[in-house]
């Protein structure tokens, strides 16, 4: 597939994202996708091109003069296109708003290439707060018991223990190195390359000891040795770990709908909150930059309060 040619100011912005802002390559690709789509749509509107062939529109020749002519109304038109014609959800559109705001802020504030920022007044679509989907303790035990006994089972068991006990992200698990472990502490590199240290409880330590003793596959790649090595001798990808979770879900007979590594993270966080973890501690363990993100787990408290009220002895329905 031919790589899309980008205008220089857009390439400069993407470099700024990773080198100065510390954004991950995954976030950079998402921003690149959003901006490419926006500029293709903008050119299609300005030049009366077929929107059905939007992927073939060349954006490499866009000049900074054309950027200066972009208005808030142009951004609204793009958001309408994303919602109506592309069927983007509110969260998907919110990401595009964040991309546009960051890009135009960079052009004005960092590069002084534009005098007016058209995205200043661009509102973010309202997103309904979703309750996290998670397993209860019985489902989690059934899931773990479903790890089939073979040469890979100590590794897979250890990875699942890290998800369920530490609540780490799948991208963080894939980036773990042997050197990430110092005694009973694990250094995790999270979003924005922010490091945090988490304690390894007995379950994690036992799983790690069993994995190290099983004669794991030798690492065949370059750089630091990963903590978890695939059967091919490579570092795991998010997709491969997701396949392992899906396989265990199927083999266990649990068949939990859309069970992913992220759902295991939700399960861990929910169980820790139920066991009495305070929000600030949970925020550190999960690596959330804002405590507001961690507060999605307080829905457990809401459910428990509801149950208390349901069990109130005065909850009596009078017969008419």
TrEMBL record:
Residues 4-108 form the Core-binding (CB) domain. Gene3D superfamilies: 1.10.150.130, Intergrase catalytic core. Residues 130-310 form the Tyr recombinase domain. The keyword Nucleotide-binding does not apply. It is found in: Cytoplasm. The keyword Cell cycle applies. Keywords: Cell cycle, Cell division, Chromosome partition, Cytoplasm, DNA integration, DNA recombination, DNA-binding. Its main location: cytoplasm. Pfam families: Phage_integrase (PF00589). This is Tyrosine-type recombinase/integrase.
């Amino acid at each position: 597939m031919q790589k899309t040619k980008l205008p220089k100011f857009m390439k400069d912005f993407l470099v700024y994202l990773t080198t100065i802002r510390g954004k991950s390559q995954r976030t950079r690709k998402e921003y690149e996708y959003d901006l490419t789509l926006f500029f293709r749509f903008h050119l299609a509107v300005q030049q009366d091109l077929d929107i059905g062939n939007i992927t073939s529109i060349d954006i490499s020749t866009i000049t900074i003069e054309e950027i200066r002519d972009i208005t808030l109304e142009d951004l609204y038109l793009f958001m309408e296109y994303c919602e109506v014609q592309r069927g983007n959800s509110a969260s998907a559109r919110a990401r595009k708003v964040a991309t546009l705001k960051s890009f135009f802020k960079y052009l004005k504030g960092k590069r002084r290439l534009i005098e007016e920022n058209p995205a200043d007044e661009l509102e973010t679509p309202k997103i309904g707060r979703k309750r996290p989907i998670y397993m209860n303790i019985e489902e989690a035990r059934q899931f773990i018991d479903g790890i089939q006994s073979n040469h890979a089972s100590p590794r897979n068991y250890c990875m699942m223990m890290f998800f369920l006990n530490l609540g780490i992200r799948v991208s963080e698990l894939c980036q773990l190195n042997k050197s990430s472990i110092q005694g009973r502490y694990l250094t995790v590199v999270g979003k924005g390359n922010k490091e945090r240290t988490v304690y390894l409880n007995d379950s994690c330590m036992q799983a790690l000891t069993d994995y190290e003793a099983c004669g794991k596959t030798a690492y065949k790649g370059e750089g630091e040795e990963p903590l978890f090595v695939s059967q091919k001798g490579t570092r795991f990808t998010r997709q491969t770990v997701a396949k392992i979770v899906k396989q265990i879900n199927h083999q266990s007979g649990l068949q939990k709908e859309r069970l992913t590594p992220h759902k295991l993270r939700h399960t861990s966080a929910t169980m820790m909150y139920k066991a009495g973890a305070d929000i600030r501690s949970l925020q550190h363990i999960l690596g959330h930059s804002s405590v507001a993100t961690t507060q999605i787990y307080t829905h457990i408290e809401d459910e428990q309060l509801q149950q208390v009220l349901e069990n109130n002895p005065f909850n009596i329905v009078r017969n008419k």
